[in-house]
Design goal:
The complex is a heterotrimer of chains A (786), B (154) and C (289). Chain A is an alpha+beta fold. In chain A, 29% of the residues lie in helices and 22% in strands. Chain A contains 20 helices and 25 strands. In chain A, strand 23 and strand 24 form a beta hairpin. In chain A, helix 10 packs parallel to helix 19 and helix 18 crosses helix 19. Chain A is globular. By secondary structure, chain B is α+β, with helices and mostly antiparallel strands. Chain B folds into 2 domains: 76 residues, Ubiquitin-like (UB roll), CATH 3.10.20; 65 residues, DNA polymerase, domain 1 (Orthogonal Bundle), CATH 1.10.150. Helix content of chain B is 32%, strand content 16%. Chain B contains 5 helices and 5 strands, in the order ββαβββαααα. In chain B, strands 2-1-5-3-4 form a 5-stranded mixed sheet, with helices on one face. In chain B, helix 2 crosses helix 5. Chain B is globular and about 50 Å long. By secondary structure, chain C is α+β, with helices and mostly antiparallel strands. Chain C has 3 domains: 47 residues, Uridine Diphospho-n-acetylenolpyruvylglucosamine Reductase, domain 2, CATH 3.30.43; 116 residues, Uridine Diphospho-n-acetylenolpyruvylglucosamine Reductase, domain 3 (2-Layer Sandwich); 110 residues, CO dehydrogenase flavoprotein, C-terminal domain (Enolase-like, domain 1), CATH 3.30.390. Chain C is 34% helix and 25% strand. In chain C, strands 4-5-10-6-7 form a 5-stranded antiparallel sheet. The chains are: A alpha+beta (786), B alpha+beta (154), C alpha+beta (289). The interface between A and B is large, with 55 and 55 residues.
């Protein structure tokens, strides 16, 4: 049993004191001298041709410094994946949704900027619009993008094994459909930027983002600047959850406005604009056909999925793959066929949101598995245990599970929730349900084709050896990555956590793909560990020369040098150190073991700047088929959840009484952070299951573009979660660690659905579970039984 | 036309000229650079702009600066003293009740007004007290536990 | 988001407020808590040239009983009403409405007067006020009038108050002995909700076990204004309280309701909830007796 000094503990987060005292600077807290304020003009129509734009009155307004439209702005296409660069900064000819950006203004203050926007006169020719998947696919539907007939943004067809043959051998085959609704990320901090183009041609963009790296590349590409002259800095971020991984219009517009005016430019989304931008969870319509043997063995699955994607591709090109690939696990499934279609519609573009394309698919399938269990007379826990994968199994779509505590998670929640005493014995109106899920620990490939390392980290040792400064381009967005990296660095270097300073989220520090696909603990963690070990090695190298001890006979632990053999006489080093630090208060005592500080100081004196570097790139993962890249990952984290609910049949209201959650995170770098991510993930899943839905009118306008009518869970809606951390020690993870941030949400919706079915016998295969939907389903069921 | 107002913020007296249509949130953030008070929605739906005004927790985005004249305001910056952090701040940090931090200022201030009035709340009272402060990161649990800890002197 | 520009007035007395409103009329909007007004101004639904704050007028913030009459100043905050013993003792439905409004933060700003004057169909104060037969005192430079709250709201956002008047206070008579009341609000979440449906009920029985001699049922969010249910009253009067009676009253109330399909819920569901909530509220009210 390895003994760790820092990791696996409950260190308070490094950034918590700043956040608790109001010192933490988020992007809207930034003010720069001479700063201008920007505002956007956005299309009020869901689908329209732009006939003319007259900016003359806006330009004449005193205090206006720049007005940009497609005429004078870069129209280099961009997006998220190079395979679908279907966006431009401003609409040139065709506005494709209400919110599509037409112009941007920079002025001396926000009031003037907003007034200028209102003075821009646009002539529109309204075009017929399509809003639903069905409308988008219909014969003769208006084309949203010239290049994509039938409004099909992307189409996926995959088959693994042979489903037809497998179905022929099944004893039971079931088909079910499932429909969720569009969601919104609903992070509490709206997107915002401050762009600053200096007189040397260097651009700095402060932005509330999950991926400074991707934003930097898109800005460089669209604005025609060399990558080395674009710096993206992430201040404190008030949540991301996926939508903030996509480069947004104010990131680009503010940079361009700053370049044109020579002044810093601030822009913010209002909460309404956050909804208009979206890039959040798609609506998915799944039709699943699953075949099993009568003993519950899963044989085959066909999954047909339609995604309502909005006006642009954004992350959706990956989403449509995930909606299929993420059913390859956590059960042994030898035959799987997936047909996925992502449709363009005249609505805000959808993208990646916690759990990405896996959440709706997981909900659909876990619900169906419960129906199958019922038909077979099997307990829902039993059927899942029977089919669960174990470490070493490879899915039909080539995911390698090097660690997989699925069975441990199921056992844990079954135990902790007292499943056996409760299932089938719940009082009237109460129900219990179980579900499982899993997710990737980082995507196997970057969003743009590249051989790049996914994470690089630099650790600079202060010349006195007292502090090591971790420099990483990774993004702390509230999930705790800075603290995790600090702890990994401390552990790997061999020093206490308070010797580590972490600076992150700045493209000047290092290349890191950012916070998405739950990648940072594993990938940035590896790079951090490597950098710390590199640094330690350099220090020990010098020490070894000085003390004439082989490097492999020494190590650093807890701030001290430990010798495997006899401790040599290091009094020479101590004397030098003491002489250089006369008057300092913290010199080591004469009888103390040799400290890391002293060794580090020697290294500096011998070699100058001490810098450790580390990088991480996953090995070649996944199969050779089309789309194999999406879903491949160095590691997968499974989880299981049991939810207990009470249904008020008179109103249809559901109360979530209890949630028990077990998550295999490989190895918890920070136990408190893992629990916190589990609890937060579950609260988002609960919201999606029960309340969340973006609603539109028949003109494509969002009806509930505010946090009053788009309802996320309040403190009175969310119960306590009994969290169980399972540690399966992932060989591909630093210290055995893998993800928790997104995987934990996977079982939540289906556990609630299954509990609802248990409580009422009413089958609901559509979200959210509003009181009305539940009430009606119960009534219908009672009618049918009469 | 600007109006002169006098008000006390975090124990300090201010005399300021403000336009009528400036909100208290913007006064704090833009004029006084007390950016610990956040703006998450500006419509009173999220609670990130919570400040304590004459002992009551309110959405500062729905209060005019002129309405705050003559009143005592406490923002998150006013929770700590020379002696150190407020026990609520300490517990939030210790328990991991802070993730992205954007709801934290509001949560702390709502919690403070609860404990000032009701030093030994039960869990329902705690959850009710923070029910106007949305959090998307934590699921509320460690926040509730932290408030409980402080109320029980832990 | 920015508030549009306006001139700000802060009268110190009711008289001064009435004088200012008398001069400005339609050009002014009164400000009490601001939780409705400022939201509408930020959304550009309203842009009054003048805003007249009633916040500093002490008499409008007083809450007290005398001679069997509860007087609640129009600017008394929902939070105060939610915690007041004077209210909770005799008027649990009013306390219920106050405590369910928005969130604790909103309740520290929102006022009973503002909630009434903004006249949103889903508002939490009007139904309880109406079941108690509360009266609204309106003042202007030319005089004063008292109006039943049931006659106060004309339509969504419209009341009988004229631009020169302010709502001064609400007057509620202490209920007769053997009275009970309740307020139930149905929302999707447990806080920060605008009612999907709400119901307030009031009943008085002959003696502690007698039949019902007075009853009122008022429902919100199921019509352009809060609606009284004469049919439910008819069902209840003269009858002995019982579960079956409450059910019948609920059915009658549902018949009187006029819900529409909207993005929050369907009319069918709202109607069904009127029935259910009325039934529950009556049972709750009976327990208060």
């Amino acid at each position: 049993m390895t003994e760790y000094h820092v990791i696996n503990g409950r260190a308070p987060r490094l950034d918590a004191p700043a956040k608790a005292t109001g010192r933490a600077v988020y992007v809207d807290d930034i003010k720069l001298p001479g700063m201008l304020h920007g505002a956007l003009l956005q299309s009020p129509l869901a689908h329209a041709r732009i006939l003319s734009i007259d900016t003359s009155k806006a330009l004449e307004l005193p205090g206006v410094k720049s007005v940009l439209t497609a005429e004078n702005a870069s129209m280099v296409p961009y997006g998220v994946s190079p395979a679908r660069y279907d966006e431009t900064l401003f609409v040139k000819d065709q506005a494709r949704y209400i919110g599509d950006e037409i112009a941007a203004v920079a002025a001396v203050d926000l009031e003037t900027a907003l007034e200028a926007v209102s003075l821009i006169h646009v002539e529109y020719e309204e075009l017929p619009a399509v809003f639903t998947m069905e409308e988008a696919m219909a014969e003769g539907a208006p084309k949203i993008h010239e290049k994509y007939p039938g409004n099909i943004c992307a189409e996926v067809h995959q088959e693994f094994g042979n489903v037809e043959e497998a179905f022929a051998q099944c004893d039971l085959i079931r088909t079910d459909t499932f429909l969720n609704k569009r969601q919104d990320g609903a992070f509490l901090e709206p997107n915002g930027v401050v762009a600053d183009f200096d007189r040397n041609g260097y651009l700095t963009l402060h932005t509330s983002t999950q991926s400074p790296h991707y934003v930097m590349r898109i800005i460089a590409m669209v604005l025609g600047l060399p990558v080395g002259k674009v710096r993206v800095v992430k201040p404190y971020v008030g949540g991301g959850f996926g939508p903030k991984a996509a480069t947004n219009s104010i990131e680009l517009a503010s940079c361009l406005l700053s370049m044109k005016t020579g002044k810093p430019v601030k822009m913010n989304f209002t909460r309404e604009q956050v909804f208009l931008f979206s890039r959040a969870r798609h609506q998915f319509k799944h039709t699943l056909t699953t075949g099993v043997k009568k003993d519950g063995t899963l044989m085959a699955l066909t999954n047909e999925c339609y995604l309502e994607g909005g006006a642009y591709a954004s992350f959706g090109i990956a989403t449509v793959y995930y909606a299929g690939s993420l059913l390859g696990a956590p059960y042994r499934l030898p035959n799987m066929k997936y047909d996925g279609y992502r449709l363009y519609t005249n609505r805000p573009a959808c993208g990646a949101q916690r759990g990405h394309g896996g959440v709706a698919a997981r909900a659909a399938w876990e619900q169906q598995i419960d129906f199958i269990a019922e038909e077979l007379g099997m307990d829902p826990v039993e059927i899942r245990m029977k089919n669960s994968m174990e470490a070493g199994d490879i899915t039909c779509n080539d995911f390698n599970t090097s660690s997989f505590g699925m069975k441990e998670c199921i056992e844990a929640v079954k135990e902790r929730s007292n499943w056996n005493e409760k299932k089938g014995k719940m009082p009237e109106g109460k129900g219990i349900g179980i579900a499982t899920g899993f997710f990737v620990s980082g995507a196997g490939y970057p969003i743009y084709r590249s051989e790049t390392a996914h994470s690089t980290v630099v650790i600079k040792l202060n010349e006195d050896g007292g502090t090591a400064h971790v420099l990483t381009g990774s993004a702390e967005i509230g999930q705790g990555s800075d603290t995790a990296m600090g702890m990994i660095a401390a552990e790997a270097l061999g020093v206490p956590l308070d010797c580590i300073k972490v600076s992150s989220g700045d493209t000047d520090y290092s290349v890191d793909l950012g916070a998405y696909s739950s990648r940072q603990t594993l990938m940035t963690g590896h790079a951090t560990k490597n950098a710390a070990e590199d640094l330690k090695g350099q220090v020990l190298d010098v020490l070894g020369e000085k003390l004439k001890v082989p490097v492999d006979q020494m190590d650093i632990k807890n701030g001290f040098v430990v010798f495997k053999g006899e401790t040599p006489d290091f009094s020479g080093i101590r004397t030098i150190y003491a002489k250089e630090h006369r008057g300092f208060f913290d010199n080591p005592d004469w009888d103390e073991p040799l400290t890391f500080k002293e060794a580090a100081r020697m290294a500096f004196l011998a070699r100058g700047s001490m810098v450790g570097t580390g990088s991480y790139k996953p090995g070649n993962l996944g199969g050779k088929f089309k789309g194999a890249a999406v879903g491949t990952s160095p590691a997968y984290g499974p989880s299981a959840q049991v939810v207990e609910i009470t249904v008020d049949k008179g109103t249809g209201k559901i109360t979530i009484d209890r949630m028990t959650d077990a998550h295999d995170c490989g190895f918890a770098i920070n136990r408190t952070s893992v629990e916190a991510q589990m609890q937060g993930s579950l609260s988002m899943g609960l919201g999606e299951a029960m309340f969340e839905e973006v609603k539109f009118d028949d003109k494509g306008r969002i009806l509930n573009a505010n946090l009053g009518e788009y309802k996320i869970a309040t403190a009175l809606d969310m119960p306590n979660v009994d969290t169980i951390i399972v540690e399966s020690n992932e060989p591909n993870g630093p210290f055995g660690a893998k993800e928790v941030g997104e995987g934990a949400i996977m079982p939540t919706i289906p556990a609630i659905l299954n509990a609802l079915y248990d409580a009422t016998g009413a089958r609901i295969q559509e979200l959210p579970l509003t009181p009305e939907r539940v009430f009606k389903a119960i009534l219908e069921k009672e009618e049918k039984e009469k | 036309m600007k109006k002169m107002i006098c008000l006390t913020i975090n124990g300090k007296e201010y005399e300021l000229a403000v336009v009528p249509n400036m909100t208290l949130a913007d006064l704090l953030r833009e004029e006084l650079l007390l950016t610990g008070t956040k703006k998450g929605c500006e419509l009173g739906d999220c609670g990130t702009c919570t400040v304590i005004m004459n002992g009551k927790a309110v959405n500062s985005c729905l209060v005019l600066a002129v309405q705050a004249a003559g009143k005592e305001i406490t923002t998150v910056e006013g929770l700590e003293t020379e002696k150190g952090l407020h026990p609520l701040q300490e517990k939030f940090i210790e328990n991991g009740a802070i993730q992205c931090g954007f709801c934290t200022s509001g949560m702390l201030l709502s919690a403070k007004t609860l404990l000032d009035k009701n030093p030994k709340p039960d869990e329902l009272e705690i959850r009710t007290a923070i029910s106007g402060n949305l959090c998307r990161c934590t699921g509320y649990q460690k926040i509730v536990e932290s408030i409980k800890d402080v109320s029980e002197g832990r | 988001m920015l508030l549009p520009k306006f001139e700000f007035h802060e009268p110190a007395t009711v008289e001064e407020a009435c004088r200012i409103l008398g001069e400005l009329g339609e050009k002014a909007k009164t400000l009490a808590g601001g939780t409705d007004l400022f939201v509408n101004m930020k959304k550009k639904v309203l842009a009054p040239e003048h805003v007249v704050s009633l916040d500093r007028i002490e008499s409008l913030s007083e809450l007290g009983s005398s001679n069997g009459m509860l007087r609640i100043g129009a600017c008394v905050k929902a939070a105060e009403i939610a915690e007041s013993h004077a209210v909770g003792g005799d008027f649990p439905a009013l306390q219920g409405g106050a405590s369910k409004l928005g969130s604790p933060l909103i309740r520290n700003l929102a006022t009973i007067g503002g909630n009434l004057v903004s006249a949103r169909p889903a508002a939490d104060f009007p139904p309880p006020l109406m079941v108690y037969g509360a009266k609204a005192v309106l003042k202007s430079s030319t005089g004063e009038r008292t109006v039943a709250v049931s006659d106060f709201i004309e339509g969504p956002g419209r009341t009988i108050i004229s631009p020169e008047e302010i709502l001064d206070s609400l007057l509620i008579e202490k209920p007769a002995a053997h009275s009970g009341s309740a307020y139930i609000k149905l929302g999707i979440r447990e806080a920060l909700e605008i009612s999907l449906v709400n119901v307030a009920v009031f009943m008085t029985t002959e003696g502690p076990d007698g039949s019902i001699k007075a009853a009122r049922v008022v429902m919100g969010s199921v019509g352009p204004t809060p609606l009284m249910s004469p049919s439910a009253e008819k069902v209840l009067l003269g009858e002995k309280p019982s579960g079956a009676l409450y059910l019948a009253a609920g059915e009658a109330a549902a018949m009187d309701s006029r819900p529409i399909d909207d993005f929050r819920a369907s009319a069918d569901y709202k109607r069904a909830m009127v029935k259910e909530l009325t039934r529950r509220a009556l049972a709750q009210a009976y327990n208060e007796i």
